[in-house]
Amino acid sequence: MTSRNMILVLLAGFPILFTAQGASAYDWYECRSNKQTWDSNNVTFRPSSVSFPSGSAWRTSVEAMRTAWNTAPGTQFDFAYSYSSSSTYSTDDDTNSILITNTYNYNGALAVARLSFKWCLWPFWGGKLKEADVLFNPAYSWENSVNPTFPPNPWSPYNSTLVGIHELGHAFGLGHEDDEMATMNSIYPNSGSLGQDNDLVPHGDDVHGNRAGYGTSGTARDLYASTYLRSSAGNSRYITAPSTLYRSPTSFQFSMGNRGTLNETSVGVKFYLSTDRNITSSDYLVGSAGFSMDQGATVTRTVSITASSSIPAGTYFFGWIVDPENYIAEADEGNNSVALTSPTVLVNQTPPNACFTQSTSNGSPPLTVFFNAACSSDPDGSIVSYTWDMGDGTIRSGSSFSHTYWNSGFYTIQLTVRDNHNLTGTKFSWVEVHGGCEEWIVPTTGGGAASKEASTGNAALPCQPL
Fold it and tell me: Which of 8, 256, 276, 367 is most exposed by smallest CB count within 10 Å?
């Protein structure tokens, strides 16, 4: 801490992170309820030409970091660059450095943003940003793509562009946002890339936060598709596709967001099966829906689709296009489509439907229940076996029979039917046996009726067979 400034260290990314922020959408550091911003909407940073030499992949990545923020829809804050020949940084020298350095104790973090604020004291200073230094940890393996061929994953090598966008977000005043999908999530890969071109740009929540701090410039609309979902606070992962798709309803998850300046009241989405991860309107259409989306929002939803018989069996990627008819004029039309990262195998056969009836679901012991699975069916074949788990340790077979429960308790029944394609269907039900203070002698031979004798034990205890 210096005589006039506070130093705030913000750490980005997996494997070690610090300074998680509050629960609202986008998060700012504040002084007396005022956002701690720069005094200007245009601030110069000095990347090191030693760390990022001209013509290098690192230089391209560093340029992409600022471009991602400077071209965000409807924003007014701009990062200016003036490259420096220095390979060191100094806190409180009024220079906003960006470099790779091993002179900082990262405590395992991928990168840090060291922020210096004016004192938040009334009436002298208003807590404005005074200096920001962005440092990258050379102890990790980095890759510098600006449009990676595959969405970034949580493992090494780490994407410098994605991490740098996160750190520059801190550098103009945004804190960690862990309750929404955002590039400012505290754990790498920070909600990942957007669209099937894997654009590394700020998400809707981040752009909305930028505009909240520095104002909005005109009207801009931008909807996007994403293959990530929020898995826990500050953490994200790929959406996983079902491994097998039958000719019956199957649920898929999908994500989309709004980087624009307007709340969108009618957003169309179409869903497709494609032989590759490049989703177009020429792929197999399997459904459509409509949504409303506030500015800054990112949502993950579930859709149920049924693949018709006109779609050949094979391996497909499930994908979707947001605003497929291009009704909305957007700042970026290239991020509207995406496909899940894992494929789904469509098979011609459909699994059987397990169904059964039972004569009762509760009563006193001994409780005999009749089960009948005649309502089970298979739309493209025949059922070849019925396997029952009666919940009391007994396994039965056959389509119909009676079963006696001798003791009080709650029993879960599971029927599994198998068809001639070796596919299965399952249904659950239950039987509750209650009351009774008598012990039952279960016949072990023949078909004679069970006899009973009065229990001399505690009537509150469940009856047990002798």
Answer: 276
Q: Name the pLDDT band for 29 (thresholds 50, 70, 90).
A: confident
Return the CATH fold of 357-454. Answer: Immunoglobulin-like (2.60.40)
**Per-residue pLDDT at 71:** 97
Is 216 a residue whose pLDDT tops 80?
Answer: yes
H or E segment at 369? Answer: strand 367-372
Give the C-alpha separation, 252 to 232, whole Å.
19
Q: What CATH code is assigned to 5-218?
A: 3.40.390.10
The residue assigned the tokens 């779609």 is 311
Report yes or no: 7 and 116 within 8 Å, Cβ to Cβ: yes
Query: Is the per-residue pLDDT at 310 higher than 60?
Result: yes
Cα radius of gyration (the chain) = 31
Contact 93, 130 (CB under 8 A): no
Unique residue bearing structure tokens 């409180």: 92
Q: Where are the domains of the chain?
A: 5-218, 235-346, 357-454
| Domains 5-218 and 235-346 agree in fold | no
pLDDT confidence of 436, banded at 50, 70, 90? low
Q: Could you read off the pLDDT of 161-207 as tens digits, one per residue?
A: 999 999 999 999 999 999 999 999 999 999 999 999 999 999 999 99
Vertex 114, ends 111 and 118: CA angle to 5°?
Answer: 165
Spell out where 186-240 has E strands: 223-226, 228-232, 235-238
Backbone φ and ψ for 181, nearest 5 degrees, come out as -70, 125
Closest CA to 365 of 392, 328, 394: 392
The CB-side HSE value for 279 (13 A sphere, CA atoms) comes to 29
Per-residue b/e over 366-377, b at no fewer than 16 CB within 10 Å? bbebebebeebe
In what helix (H) or strand (E) does residue 130 lie, and over which residues does it extend? Answer: strand 129-136
Is the bond leading into 151 cis (omega within 30 degrees of zero)?
Answer: no
Please tell me the predicted confidence (pLDDT) of residue 213: 95
Classified as helix, coil or strand, 231 is: strand
Residue 114, CB-side half-sphere exposure with 13 Å CA sphere: 21
In sequence order, which residues have a C-beta less than 8 Å from that of residue 359 and are 6 or more positions away? 369, 370, 371
Overall pTM > 0.90: no
Asked if residue 369 has pLDDT above 60, the reply is yes
CATH class of 235-346: mainly beta
Q: Can you read off the two tokens belonging to residue 262? A: 């307007």
DSSP conformational letter for 206:
H
Which amino acid, residue 199?
D
Question: pLDDT tens for residues 226-252?
Answer: 999 999 999 999 999 999 998 888 999
What separation in angstroms does the CA of 163 have from each of 70, 143, 146, 183, 210? 16, 11, 11, 9, 17
